[in-house]
Amino acid sequence: MSTTTPARRRYDDDLPAGHHPSKLSRTLVWTGLVLFLIYSVSPIWFLIVSATKNQRDLYTSNGLWFADFHLFDNARQLFTYHNGIFLRWMGNTLLYGVVGTVGMTVICVACGYALAMYRFRGRGVLMGCIIASFLIPGALLTIPSFLLYTRLHIVDTPWAIIVPHFFSAFSVYLAKVYAEGAVPPELIEAARVDGAGEYRVFFTIGARLMTTGSATIFLLGFVGSWNSFFGPLVFLRGEQKWTVMLGLYSWLNVKVDQSYDLTGLVIVGSIVSLIPIVALMLAMQRYWRSGITLGSLK
Amino acid sequence: MPRTSRRAVLAATLALGLAAGTAACSSDSDKSSASGPVEIEYWAWGDAQPVVDKFNATHPDIKVKFVKQAELTTTATGLRNAVAAGSGVPCLVQNFGDVPALLAEGLLAEVTDYVKPAESKFVPAALPGAQVQGKYYGIPTGSGPTFMMVNRAVYDKYGVPVPKTWDDVITAGKALKPHGVQVMNLAGEDPSTLVNLIIQAGGSWYSVQKDAWKVDFLSPESVAAANILQQLVDNNLVANQTYQDRPALIAYFDQGKMASLPTSTWQLTNYELNFKKSVGNWEPVDLPQYAGAAKFATPAHGGALLVPKGCAHLKEASEVGIWMNTTKDAVDATFDKATGSYAWPGAMPDPSPWVDSAVPQKLFGSRRPEAKAVILKASRSGVDNWLVGPNYTGVFKELQDQWAQAVTKKITFRQLLENMQKFTVDDLKAKGINVAS
Lengths: 298, 437
What we know:
The structure holds two protein chains of two kinds.
Chain A: H1 23-51, H2 55-60, H3 71-117, H4 123-133, H5 142-152, H6 159-165, H7 169-182, H8 185-193, H9 198-209, H10 211-227, H11 230-235, H12 244-257, H13 263-297
Helix pairs in contact in A: 1-13, 3-6, 3-7, 3-10, 3-13, 4-7, 7-10, 8-9, 10-13, 12-13
Chain B: H1 3-32, E1 38-44, H2 49-58, E2 62-68, H3 72-85, E3 92-93, H4 99-104, H5 112-115, E4 131-132, E5 135-136, E6 138-142, E7 147-151, H6 152-157, H7 166-176, E8 184-185, H8 192-200, E9 206-209, E10 212-215, H9 220-234, E11 238-239, H10 246-254, E12 260-263, H11 265-274, E13 282-285, E14 298-299, E15 303-306, H12 314-326, H13 328-333, H14 352-358, H15 370-380, E16 382-383, H16 392-407, H17 413-430, E17 435-436
Parallel strand pairs in B: 1-2, 1-3, 8-11, 10-17, 14-16
Antiparallel strand pairs in B: 4-5, 6-15, 7-12, 7-13, 9-10
């Protein structure tokens, strides 16, 4: 960066007065940042480059640079392979993700709000249980869940994926912490004085003040659901019900014991499966922005 | 939030709950209303739909429902869960392990009564793989033919004759080594080369003596196999390229730095698709034999289409399985448009109608016509004396560890066999299984 042009902001301007970092520390910081940048960006770069290659170039050409351009061929193959099963997987994932995460957001925001706003007996114990449940690894619950869902007859139905997603201890915790900061008890009191019932207070005041928190919970939940792998793997049978992650995984494994190698499709599929998440991130940015300004106006 | 949308949210939440309830009910009623043709659920990770369609079209009294699985490991987990839960157990499952070990786990049902009468439809070498002590716990599927492909261009370039025996392989390795070429690849994680050599010699690590298992890792056959591998490793004649990093593996095979590759039909198309430089340089040849062996033999340890415990229709499941593995209709239905080939009919006495399609067009160049004879000879000479014990799943994991140490010269193959002998006997005893001394 040029430091000779006086009109431009200098790097040092952002530092406290009288603070001059040594050359060594600056070099170290820059090196660290550059290495971190390479580390974060190179997998995506690899993915983009690889998506343009055909199967043979994928293995034999330089992994980080382009060979012959086959992106459109690959995409066409992706959407037509096996009667377009990939689209079905995308649809399934979207369905499980949207239904599961909307339900989860409603339940967890309401739950967090209740924990933050109401004083009731057993509240401390309940909060303790929620925090303690963070400590239980999900994999440990697979067999009990499987037996439970078998009893409920929801194994091999979408409900085995959607219903468990409704309940997230971490989201409840997040919602509670956010509600404590964002919803002033005086406002709730005022609404009650004006004659609003508790549901009305929650939906018209509480939930609205918690928009940014809810958006965060929704986004984290949706990303989690989109990438979820273990649940679909254990509870869903038959490729018609699979999620996109599970489908891509099965394609990747085809090569192990069959002659046909689908690695190329897996790579293009991975890029396509990123699109909804990126779109969602971009679409939801305004919630954070409005959330931040909300804070500064108060 | 306005009143209407608040209601909408409540209604939606309620509807979800109701739908979950009805979904639960409907799956119940499906089961009780089972009339008409018997339904057989079939789990596999390969694409078996065309075969199932063909069966359903020609058999009105049995209906097969194919449920695609993600891959081997998850199929195994799914089956274990279903058998443990005692519900949703399929009647046929693609093979994911050796029958005795799966039987010991309590996963398999006995189908001897239904398979025994059909024995004549199978090639004899395919039968032992589905049996434990003469009883069937699955439908024999046989195995692919084992032969070798050599990079003929490399052999010719350095004037080295193509090996016919394992001793020749060692000699060829010594001749190729000064040119920076390795004669074979032994992946550090895959001990199947050792197992295949022992099967080829007609040996087995386990046998049954009255009501006890006899374990013999130090039989003459095992020692002979270990000697060959020891010489290859001691003289640095082999590579240890892993199968996990496929691009590196393919590139390595393609470069001409590795000259011979024991293989089977199902791998050929993949090599043709991925090789860039060496397509056309390869030649299919007979699998090297032991010097002085009485007759030509290739390892042909078969597998089984599994019939799990808890399947309610053993007779029908066996009928479907036998049809899948022994009829022309079934094999024809496995045709894959993408590769232009059929699944290898490993259980059929005469695989010749499908040999030609198993050989890709360009991999062997002008030597393609040789492939048919090589493959049929390998298929006819398959031997299978291999018997695995009930603890083979754990033994195989230990074997992988020992193998990795042996190919990297940390221990000798003789030590590997000795360690495995001790491990296997101790493990059987710890499990309370009788071991003959």
